[in-house]
Structures are given as C-alpha cells and as structure tokens.
Amino acid sequence: MTTQVIYTRRRLGITGNPPYDGEPFTQFSAVTPETKLEDLNLNWREMDLPERERTKHVHRLHPYLGKFVPQLVEIFLRKYRPRVVCDPFCGSGTTLVEANALGIEAVGCDISPFNCLLSRVKTETYDLPTLEREIHDILKRLRDNLRVTPQLHLDELASEYLRTWYSPRARRELLAYRQLIARYRYQDVLRVVLSRAARSARLAPHYELDFPREPVTAPYYCHKHRRICQPTDEALKFLQRYSLDTLRRIEQFAAIKTDARVTVIQGDAREVEFPPCDMVITSPPYVGLIDYHEQHRYAFELLGLPEQREAEIGAPWKGNSERGVRQYVEDMVAAFRNVLRALPAEAIVVVVVHDRKNIYDAIAERLGVRTEYRIKRHVNRRTGRRADDFFEDVIVWRKA
Predict the structure, then answer these.
(1) CA pair distance 116, 110, nearest whole angstrom
(2) d(Cα 379, Cα 381) in Å, to the nearest integer?
(3) Among 36, 121, 171, 203, which has the minimal tally of Cβ within 10 Å of its Cβ?
(4) Parent domain of 324
(5) 276 in the same domain as 214
C-alpha cells in the first residue's frame, strides 16, 4: 500500500512524508538538529516498530487508550533539544518519560487526577530495594488476610459500580489490597497496581476492556480468544502478576533515568500558570472521540479520585456536531494561548492529533503561530478490537 504524499498549505512550505512502501525511519538516536523531518518516513508498521518497543519500560505501566508513540516524542526532542519541554495534555506521561530519558526537564499538566497519578509514578525516583520489599510485603499480607478471614466484610465500602462490575471474590480482594496501601512508603505505585488489576478483574468481556457496555455473569463467546470464556471471578492473580511487572518496568526505566526535573500539575490547561519552558510536545484530546474519565472509571471508584468530567475538552458526551466542534476549537485556543505565554518567541510547538475535522489550521491562525511542518502519518497498527488503521496529523508550529 502506498500513502499519497499530502501537501497542506504549500505556500508555507509544509511537506508530507515519504511513500508508505519506502524505508521507515527507526534510527531514533541518530536524529540531530540538522535532521530534516521531511526526509523521515514515520509510517511505522508492526515489523518496523513492534509493540514491545512502543510500550517499553514504564510506558506500559498501565493501559491507556489514545497515547501517542514515544518514538515520535524522542524524534522531536532530539531535533529541537529544548531545555524545558511542556506537555499541557500530558495524559499518561509519554512526553515526560521521554524527556527525562534524554536529560531534558519536563512540565506536564492534565485535568485528570488519575492521569497525573500515572505520570508521577512513571517519572518518580525510587529506592528500588525498598520498593521491591513493599511490593512483595503487601502481597504476602493480602494472602494472609484472605486466608484467615476469607469473608472480609468490606462490601459496605464498595460503591454501586464496584458491586455491579466485580464478582464478590474479586471485590473482596481489591478492597482488601486497598486497605493495606496506607502501610507503605510508595503508596502511589501500589495504587497503580491496584488500578491495573481492577481493569482486568471486571466482569467485562475480554474483547471490550476499553469500554465494556455491560457486565457478563455467564459464559460467553469471546471474539478475542475465539472460544467460550468464563466471567472473571478473581483479582488476586492480577494483583500478583502486575506487581511483578510494575517492579520490572520501574527497574528498567531506572537504568536510563536521569536527574532532569519532572513537574506534574493537576489542573486545567486553559487556566494553569505554566512555568517558563521553551518547547511544547503534546497529543491533545480529540474532538468527540474518547471519554477519558469513563476509560478509567474503575480507578476513580476504587481510589476515590475526584471527577473532572465537566472540564474535559472534547469529551464524547459533548458531541461532535458543529456546535461541539466550535466549543472544542474555543477550548483548544484557550489552552494553547495559555501555554504560549510560558514560551519565548520562536519556540516550537509540536501537536500530534487526529485532525479528522480539519480544524487545526484555523486554531493556528487564531493563535498567530506559523505552521512549519505538517504531515499525515499512517497509523496501521492498533491493539485489541480497535485494530482499524487511520491517519494522525503531526504539526509543528513556531511562536511568532
């Protein structure tokens, strides 16, 4: 398959990427300020950039739908070499992790307290022996507690959501683990383990883990495994599996982590006062596509996190009608205008977005930024049931 090279607003000198059947670019460490972006083929196939590379070390500490490829971030950080990079929609922390690995200071902001939790856990510095000891100790205490008092009376602590989406056994195991977290130093790591296990332990069909429609309580035909599957009945096996995986991933990142400072701000990008920075790399929410709160509903319920649903930009419930798109544009203009105040003149802003409504040229015009580079990158590999390919826009603005 060949992707048509797309030239957008040719008068500005914006170029498209090479043909899809050309040689994809994978020598990421070779990128320098002299590298010409238009010479790079960013249409990676699974064989070019396998999932294990896209989700290396802490990038897969917790599932997160809609995050961008860390190698894209690495390319632009190596190309422009900022002193401090900012991501005003930091999500699960991809920009922050990649910046730290390169010794670049980073500032991330997100409206979701759960996203900020993920970003902080991924970029924190740990005493690894202590972390390992705590991860194993809480599992031991949990098993002991469940063995001595298997019928833990914890249901009074469970919300209606938890009673609906978890079997009695799984619910007891999750709530018992939650009660133990306060004993430990690295509580946020344990909260992430709990959340990840809760995602897998739901009474959800295996093929609908992103946004399950209703709980399954009887055997069902599984489109993912192509056989009859049983409803999930326990959480302990997931708590054990993800505890060890979390420790391994944090240890892997610790081997390349630098002392570069990472700041995570929980707040609205339209209102936060950003500290001085000299570059932005971000993948903002798409209009009317992903409900980021509902994606992690189990985490909000288990961890008692405050909801910020009303403040989410582009949430599906706000619609993608003409009115919804207008509101999205106003919100994005407000957010980018706010972060631009923290940037010096001529600073670079990289935006990776699925611009299916063709609205980002209008946003750039409202902001008064110059568009220096824009391509449509073919994304031909996705996991799970969301396996359809699509094109995402990679846009480089320069502040006037």
Answers:
(1) 6
(2) 6
(3) 36
(4) 10-116+262-283+311-398
(5) no
Q: Which of 390, 389, 317, 392 is nearest to 353 (CA)?
A: 392
Q: In this structure, what CATH number is given to the domain that contains residue 65?
A: 3.40.50.150
Q: Are 108 and 262 in contact (CB under 8 A)?
A: yes
Indicate if 78 and 27 belong to the same structural domain.
yes
Q: What is the number of other CB atoms lying within 10 angstroms of the CB of residue 340?
A: 19
* 385, 224 Cβ separation under 8 angstroms: yes
Residues 135 and 214 both lie in one domain: yes
Type of residue found at 318: K
pLDDT tens-digit readout, 347-383: 999 999 988 888 999 999 999 999 999 988 887 654 4
Give all strands (DSSP E) within the chain, no chain letters: 84-87, 105-110, 220-222, 227-229, 262-266, 279-282, 348-353, 370-379, 390-398
Q: What is the pLDDT of residue 350?
A: 98
Confidence of residue 384 (pLDDT cuts 50, 70, 90): very low
**Pseudo-torsion of CA 112, 118, 124, 128, nearest 10°?**
150
Report how far residue 96's alpha carbon sits from residue 106's, in angstroms, rounded to the nearest whole number.
6
pTM, 2 dp: 0.91
Across all residues in the chain, what is the average pLDDT?
Answer: 89
At 151, phi and psi to the nearest 5? -100, 60
pLDDT, tens digit (0-9, with 9 covering 90-100), for 131-160: 999 999 999 999 999 887 655 566 677 889
Report d(CA 55, CA 67) in Å as an integer.
11
Terminal Cα distance for the chain, rounded: 38
Burial class (CB in 10 A: 0-12, 13-18, 19+), 92: buried
Looking at residue 329, its amino acid is V
Q: What is the mean pLDDT of residues 63-85?
A: 94
Give kind and range of the element (H or E) at residue 303. helix 297-303
